[in-house]
Design brief:
By secondary structure, the protein is an alpha+beta fold. 63% of the residues lie in helices and 11% in strands. It contains 10 helices and 5 strands; from the N terminus they run ααααβββααααββαα. Strands 1, 2, 3, 4 and 5 form a 5-stranded antiparallel β-sheet that branches.
C-alpha cells in the first residue's frame, strides 16, 4: 500500500509540474505562403494536393549523363559523407541516453599481501561488484532521451538537406555548362560572320576608293572583340568543370555532357498545398525538430529543480571481514538509497532554465522563418520560370528580325546605302540577342531545378 501511494503521489506531482509532456507542433499560418496566381500572372502552378517535389529526381532529370553525375555526387560528395557520419554520431548519443535508464555496474577486484615484522604473510582478497540506478521520477533522463531522439531526427533531416543541395547544385552546374557550350557555339559562328564582314570591307576598299580604311579597322576590331568573348567563355567552361568536379569528389577534369537543345524538363507544375510543404522540405522539418529538441531541453532544465534519487548496491566475495580473515571467503552484501534535493545553487538552475526557454523561443522564430523562406523560394522559382519563358519566346522573334537586319545592312553597304557602323551594330545586336536568349533558356531550366528543390524534391 505504501508503494502504491508513493507511485500515485509521484504521478500527481509530475502531472502538476507539467513534466513528461510530449512535443506538439505549434500553430503556423500558411495562408498565402505561395503567391496567388489569380492576382498576378507570375506562376504556372496548379493548385491541387499533388506536389512536383514528390517526384523522384530521376524522373525530373532524365539526361543519362546528368543522372550519372548525380549518382556519383551522392556517393562521393564530402559534405554528404560528413552528414552521414553526423547521423552515426547522434545515433550513438541516443543509445547512451537510452542506457541511462539501466543500472550501471562496476567490477574492481582487489588483493593484498601483508606481513608483520617478517612473520607469516597474510593474504586477503575481495571481488566486489557495485551497481547504481537513478530513479527518473521527475523526467530528467526521459527528457534527455526525447531531446536525443529529436536531435537524431534533425540530423537525418540535415542529411536530406545536403542531399537535395548536392542534386540541385550538380544539375545547375551541368545546365550551366550546356549554356556556356551553346553560347560558345554562337560566338564561334559570329566570329566567322564578323571575319567575312572584315574581308568584305577590305575587298570593297581595294576595289573602290569610295570606301575608307575606318570601316576596315572597325570591322577588324569587331572581329577580335568576338574572339575575346570566345576566350572568356572557354575560361568560364573550364572553371565550371572544376567546380563540378569538386562537388563530385574528384580532381578537376573535363565533364561529359549533352547539348542544351536536347534537354527535356517538366513544364507544368503543382506546388501542393502549403501544409504539405512543411512535411516535404527537410530544412523546414529540421528547424521544427530543433524546436522540439529545445522543448525537451526546457523540461530537462526544469527537472533539475526536483530531487534526484539513486539506489546503490554492492556485493563482494571476500575473505576479509574487517575484524579478521575468513577462509573460505563469504559474500558481503550492502544496499543504500540516497536523495539529493537542490536548495541553493547560486542561481545556476534558474539561469539554466531561462537560457533553455530563450533558446526555445529562438528555435521557434527560426522555424517560422524557415516556413516563410520555403514559400518565398517557391514563388521566386515560379516567377523566374514564367519570366524566362516569356523572354525566350520574345527573343526568338528578336533574333529572327536581327538576322534579317544583318543581311539587309550588308546588302545596303554593298550598294552604299548604309555605312559600316550599321553593319557592325547589326551584328553586335544579333550576337547579344542570341546570347541573351540562351541565358534565358538556362534560367528557365534553373527555375525548374530551384522549384524542385524548394518543394522538397530530391529526398527519394
Amino acid at each position: 500500500m505504501k508503494k502504491l501511494l508513493t507511485i500515485m503521489s509521484a504521478t500527481l506531482l509530475l502531472s502538476s509540474c507539467g513534466l513528461y509532456n510530449k512535443y506538439e507542433r505549434p500553430d503556423v499560418n500558411t495562408t498565402g505562403l505561395v503567391r496567388d496566381t489569380a492576382s498576378v500572372s507570375d506562376t504556372l502552378a496548379v493548385r491541387d494536393t499533388a506536389n512536383f517535389g514528390n517526384l523522384p529526381w530521376r524522373e525530373v532529370f532524365t539526361d543519362p549523363q546528368l543522372q550519372a553525375l548525380i549518382e556519383q555526387g551522392l556517393e562521393n560528395n564530402v559534405d554528404l559523407l560528413n552528414a552521414a557520419l553526423n547521423v552515426k554520431m547522434v545515433e550513438a548519443q541516443l543509445t547512451a541516453a537510452k542506457l541511462a535508464f539501466v543500472p550501471s555496474f562496476t567490477f574492481s577486484p582487489q588483493g593484498t599481501l601483508s606481513s608483520w615484522d617478517g612473520s607469516k604473510t597474510t593474504k586477503t582478497y575481495s571481488l566486489p561488484v557495485q551497481a547504481s540506478w537513478s530513479l527518473d521520477l521527475f523526467g530528467n533522463l526521459l527528457s534527455q532521451k526525447h531531446s536525443a531522439q529529436t536531435a537524431l531526427l534533425a540530423t537525418k533531416d540535415y542529411q536530406l538537406v545536403v542531399k537535395t543541395q548536392v542534386i540541385a547544385n550538380i544539375a545547375n552546374m551541368y545546365y550551366t555548362l550546356l549554356m556556356l557550350d551553346r553560347q560558345l557555339e554562337i560566338v564561334n559562328e559570329m566570329s566567322g560572320v564578323t571575319k567575312e564582314t572584315w574581308d568584305m570591307m577590305k575587298g570593297l576598299k581595294e576595289l573602290s576608293a569610295g570606301y575608307n580604311s575606318t570601316s576596315v579597322s572597325s570591322a577588324e576590331a569587331n572581329y577580335y572583340s568576338v574572339l575575346a568573348q570566345a576566350a572568356d567563355l572557354k575560361r568560364q567552361i573550364r572553371e565550371t568543370e572544376n567546380s563540378l568536379s569538386l562537388m563530385l569528389g574528384q580532381s578537376a577534369q573535363a565533364i561529359k555532357r549533352g547539348r542544351l537543345e536536347d534537354q527535356n524538363l517538366p513544364s507544368k507544375f503543382s506546388t501542393g498545398i502549403p501544409l504539405q510543404m512543411l512535411n516535404n522540405r527537410p530544412d523546414v522539418h529540421y528547424a521544427e525538430m530543433s524546436l522540439a529538441q529545445c522543448f525537451y531541453n526546457v523540461q530537462t532544465a526544469r527537472s533539475r529543480f526536483y530531487p534526484s534519487i539513486t539506489i546503490s548496491g554492492s556485493g563482494a566475495f571476500t575473505n576479509s571481514s574487517g575484524a579478521g580473515i575468513v577462509n573460505p571467503g563469504k559474500w558481503l552484501l550492502s544496499a543504500v538509497g540516497s536523495l539529493v534535493q537542490p536548495l541553493f545553487m547560486n542561481g545556476q538552475l534558474i539561469a539554466g532554465l531561462k537560457v533553455a526557454k530563450a533558446e526555445q523561443e529562438q528555435a521557434y522564430n527560426t522555424w517560422q522563418n524557415a516556413v516563410l523562406q520555403a514559400g518565398n523560394e517557391v514563388s521566386n522559382a515560379l516567377v523566374l520560370y514564367n519570366t524566362s519563358d516569356e523572354r525566350s519566346r520574345l527573343e526568338q522573334k528578336q533574333v529572327a528580325a536581327l538576322r534579317r537586319a544583318v543581311e539587309d545592312t550588308k546588302m545596303l553597304y554593298h550598294d552604299r546605302s548604309s555605312n559600316y557602323l550599321e553593319v557592325i551594330t547589326a551584328e553586335t545586336n544579333l550576337l547579344n540577342a542570341e546570347l541573351t536568349k540562351v541565358a534565358d533558356d538556362f534560367y528557365k531550366m534553373q527555375a525548374v531545378v530551384n522549384l524542385y528543390q524548394a518543394l522538397g524534391g530530391g529526398t527519394n
